[in-house]
Specification:
Blueprint lengths: L1 H15 L1 H15 L3 E7 L5 E7 L21 H9 L6 H6 L4 E3 L9 H10 L7 E3 L1 H4 L7 H14 L2 H15 L2 H12 L1
Parallel strand pairs: 3-4
Antiparallel strand pairs: 1-2
Amino acid sequence: MIRFFDFSFSFVGLIIFTPLFFLVYLLIWLDTGSPIFYQKRIGKNRKVFILVKFRTMKIGTLSVGTHLSKPSDITAIGKFLRITKIDELPQLFNVLKGEMSFVGPRPCLPNQKKLIAERKKRGIFRVLPGITGLAQINGINMSTPLLLAKTEKKMIEKINLLKYFSYIFLTFFSFFKKNRLLWLKKYIRV
């Protein structure tokens, strides 16, 4: 049933956001000349797939987790795309293809060995990775592999349709937290 909603929402989302896709594509193309960013990630059953995002970092930047990247590597438009999460929109293609779900553990990089080991121990790779989930809502990222894997295990064990929709709703709600809106207002004024 969740796959039905993933497919339906991603299909409709791609149609609705088409004008935004073209605008962002053009802006990044004018900035870096390379608007789309492709990166190998680990998916369900540890199968490697290609994650699609809008480029937020300078061309030639090392392929590392977001928490390890240098602020100076992020482009001016990339800062805005990250805070608004617009850089994630192309992942709707990954969801449509069945490589990802809207809800699940964030897909890690093949070089994140410690996180891969923690996830393997807890059976995290038996589900599709997602755009959002319990860890993202709680601000837990890949810099704390053990905590992340434990949180993902808790989410996987209790996932159902109600939780699926609640994680999506809470993701939107967490975006509109006061501190993010203040940062966004400050960024827009600059």
